[in-house]
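Example record

Each entry pairs one chain with its bound ligand, magnesium ion.
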Amino acid sequence: MVGIVIVSHSKRLAEGVRELAAQMVQGKVPLAVAAGIDDPENPLGTDAMQVYNAIASVYSDDGVLVLMDLGSALMSAEMALEFLPEEHQQKVHLCAAPLVEGAIAATVAAAAGNNIQQVIAEAQGALIAKATQLGVVDHLTPYPSPLAERGEKQNTKEIRLTVSNRLGLHARPAARFVGCAARFQSQIKVRNVTKGSDFVRADSINQVAMLGVRQGHEIVITATGSDADEALAALQALIESNFGEDDRALEPHPTTSPPHLPISASPPSSLQGIPASPGVAIAPSFQFRKIPLALHQITPISIQEYHVKNPEFEWQRLQSALQTARQEIQTLLSNASIQIGDAEAAIFDAHLLFLEDPTLIEAAQQRVFTYHLNAEAAWQGVVDEVASNYHHLDDPYLRERVADVVDVGQRVLRVLSGAPVTAVEISQPAILVAADLNPSDTAGLDPTKVLGICITAGSATSHSAILARSLGIPAIVGLPAEILQLADGTLLAIDGETGRVWIEPEPDTLAALQAKRDTQQAAQQQALNIARQPCLTRDGSAITVFANIGSIADTQQALKLGAEGVGLLRTEFLYLNRTTAPSEEEQLTVYQAIAQILDTRPLIIRTLDVGGDKPLPYLGMQSETNPFLGWRGIRFCLDRPQVLKTQLRAILRASFGQQIKIMFPMIAAVAEIQAAKAMLTEVQAELRQAGIAFDETMEVGIMVEVPAAVAIADQLAAEVDFFSIGTNDLSQYVMAADRTNPKVANLADAFHPAVLRMIQQTIQTGHAAGIWVGLCGEMASDPLAAPILLGLGLDEVSLNPHAIPGFKVAIAQLTMAQAEAIATTALQQDSAAKVRALVSTSVD
Ligand code: PEP
Ligand code: MG
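C-alpha cells for the complex follow.
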C-alpha cells in the first residue's frame, strides 16, 4: 500500500492532519509525520533527517507520497530524497497538493488500494474539487483561493514593477520568467495590475503568458517561502534587464541607399505580404505542403477518443511521450542555440516549459484518471483548451502563440502515434512557399538551401518570423493564398524589407533586386570581416578581444562574431538548475568541448562563482541578509574544498594540450589566493601521481572585483599571472550600490570616475608587476567604453559576443593618442553621465 508522509513546520499541525486522515480510513494507511525541530525555544521548522526517517518508516515498493506545508519543508523533503538509495528515490513522490486536503484525499485513495499515480492525482485534485465547489476558480487556476491568500499574507513578500521590454511577457520572456521562478522553493504568483487580472502561478508558462503583460504594464509578483527575497530579487533583475533581449532585433534593418525598384502593376506578377525578415532572395520556388506531418496547419494529426480500462497504463504512455517530446525539443534547442544564438533559441525553452506546465499536466492526468480517456484524447483536450484561451485574447501578439501551443501539442501526438519526425528537405537552393511553418520546422531550416521564405499565415512577430530573422533568411508572411498555387521551380524574387514577392520578375526588376542584394551582402560581409580581424586602432595599436560565455553553444556564436578567445567562462551554468553538483567527468566533457571549438585560442575558466544573486540551495547555501557581502565566490569554494577540488581536477585534465587558464573570482585577500593555489597544487600532485596529464604551465589569474583587491593589487600581482577586472562587482562595491537594486542603478555604474580610477590603478599596478591585465565586466560591451578602456592601457577585454563587432569598429576609428586623451579626461569628470557625454562628443 502507498505510504504517506506529512512534513510541516509545526508538529501539532502535522499530528492534527495525521489524526484527521487516519480517522477517515481507520488507521489502514501507513502515515508518518516529520515536523518541527528539536529546539524547545523555537520548535517551528523542518529537518531533512526527520523527513528521511519518516519516509523510511512507511516505505514500500508501492511508493510513498510526501506532502509538505511550505518554504523549507520543500527543501528538507528534497534533501531527504537525496539521502535515499537511488532505486527508492524513484518511488518517493513529493506532491504539490495542499497539505490538509491533499493528505486526506491521498490517504483515502491509498486505503482504496490505488496505485501511487492515482493517489497523486487524487491529492492534486483535492483543492480543485473544493475550489470548484465554492465557485471561486476554474480548474486551471488553482491558486487564487481567497482563503489561501489570507493565510499566506504574513509570509508573503511582494514587489510591483513596470515591464519595459518591447513585447512584454510574451513566450520567450515568459519562459525566462517561469524558468527563473522555478529555481526557487517559494510559491510565486504574479498578476497584471494594468489589466486587473487575478494572481496566477509563476510556474505555469500558459498562465503567465495569458496575463497579457505588455510593455508599460504594471505587475505584482508575490513570493511565499524561505527564499522569497532572493526569488523576487532575481525576477526583478530579469525584468529590469529586459529579459536579456535585444529589442532592436525587431526593428527594420537599416540598408544603405535602397535602389529604386520598379514594381509591376498587375498582380499576380507581384504579391504584397508583411515584411518579416529583411534581405533579398532570388531563387526557384518550392512548395512545402508536400511533407504532411511537419505542417500541422495543413494536415493535423487526427486522433480518436476512446475510453480505457487501465488509466495507469495510459498515463504512463502519455508521460513517456511527454518525455520523448521534451528530449526532441531539447535537441532542437541546442541546435538552434548553436545556429541562431541563445536569445532566439529560447523560443524552445517556452516549448519545454509548456510541456512541464504543472497546470497542464495535472489537467491531462485528471482527464486520464477521472474520465478514463486515452492519452491522445486527454492531451488533445487540454491543448485545445489552452489554444482556445490564447485564441480568444485581445492581444494579437498573444493570439500568435496559438502556433506554439499547437506545435508542441502536435509533437506529443506524433510521438504517441509513433510517426517518424519529418523535416523540410530541399536538395537545391530555393524559396520555400508554405501556408505556415511552425517554429520547429523553421529552426531546422538550412540557410544555404532555403534562401527565402514566403508564407500565407503569420505576422512579423510570429516565432517563425523571429527565427527566420535569427537565421538570416529573408521572409515574408501574410501573403495572398495565390502564392500556394505556384508550380515548383517558378522563379521568385523576394524583398523581405518591403514584403513584396515578384513572380517571374521582369529583367529590370531582377537587375535592381540583384543590385540591392549584392549591396546588402557586401555590407554584412564588411561588418563580419572587421569583427574577424584583429582589433587594431587606426595607427595599429592592438587590444585582444575575448568573449564572455556561459555554454558550449555560446562558444560557436562568439567565434562567428569575431572573438579571439574566451576571457570568461562562467562555470555557474553547470551548477544551476539542478539538484546535485556536476561530476568531474561531466565538467571535463564540457570544458573539453569548449576548448576544442576554440581550437588554439585561449580559454579562461573561472571557478565556481555562486552566492550573491546565484544561490545554490543544494550545496547548503542559505539566504543571507547581504548576499553580495556574504558567502560567495572563492569564500564559498574554500569552505567547500570538495566542490572546488572536483572542479580544479576537471579544469586541469581539460588543460592538457589546450590554451586553458584558470581564474579565481572574488579575491579580497592574499590568504585567499594562496589557499586556492595550495589546493591547485594539491590537485596537480594527485594527478601527477595518477599519471594523468595536464598543462604544467597553465596560467593562474584572479578577478579584481573587490576594492580590497585593487588596494593590495601589488601583493596579489606577486601571486598570479594575470588580472581580469570585473567591473560589474567592482562598481557595486566601490559605489556601495547593490547591482540588483534598480533604485541605485545609476550609482552602480562602471563609467563613474571612481570606478574608472580603480581600473586605472589596477592596470598600472599589474603592469608594474609585469603581469597582463584584462577586463571582463559588462562595461566593455558598451562601445562608448572602448576608447576609455583602450586609453587606460588594458591588454585584453572580454565581452558579450554580440558586442564584439561594435567594439572592434569603435577601436578601428581611434588612434592610441586619442584614446589616451579621452581616458585621461574621463578620469577628471565628476559623474558617469559626464564621462558618457565626453566620449560621445569626442568620437563623433
Ligand atoms: C564582474 O563582476 O564584472 C563579472 C564579470 O562577474 P559576474 O558578473 O559573473 O559577477
Ligand atoms: Mg563578479
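Residues 154 and 224 are 9 Å apart (CA to CA).
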